[in-house]
Amino acid sequence: MAKTIMVVDDSASLRQVVGIALKSAGYEICEASDGRDALSKLNGQKVHLVVSDVNMPNMDGITFVKELRKLPAYKFTPVIMLTTENQEAKKAEGQAAGAKAWMVKPFKPEQMLMAVSKLCLP
């Protein structure tokens, strides 16, 4: 059975690019436009990994990760932050919130797939 990855980004084109890369590697994709949208779509369904932007309207990525960690079903779901942010302070904030990896845009699809395959829950 294919593993499901949630892609959370306010840019539809970026969600599409990430989605194409992941689908080509055999993953199922669900999308959300920001943290609040993502939380509303996570209704107990199995998600093996989340790829999230940091800077988004309504709920930013770091707040989203903190909220995700409060949900028992997603407490251990790995999160990759995909963002234009590259300051160490932001990365530390992301890690403290529970993000497992940090990728800076623009990203290479191979890079993304390598990180996803390493972090994806069984």
Report the C-alpha radius of gyration, rounded: 13 Å
Major beta-sheet overview: 5 strands, parallel
- Side by side, the strands of the main sheet go 2-1-3-4-5
Structural class: alpha/beta
Percent of residues in helices comes to: 40-55%
User: How many discrete domains?
Assistant: 1
Low-confidence stretches: none
Q: Count the strands? A: 5
The number of distinct helices, counting runs of at least 4 residues, comes to 5
Q: Can you write the helix and strand succession as a string?
A: EHEHEHEHEH
Architecture (CATH level 2) name: 3-Layer(aba) Sandwich
N-to-C terminal Cα separation, in Å?
11 Å
At the fold tier of CATH, the topology name is Rossmann fold
* Name of the level-1 CATH class: Alpha Beta
Strand percent estimate: 15-25%
Task: Give me the CATH superfamily.
Answer: Response regulator
The general outline is globular
- The whole-number mean of residue pLDDT values reads 95
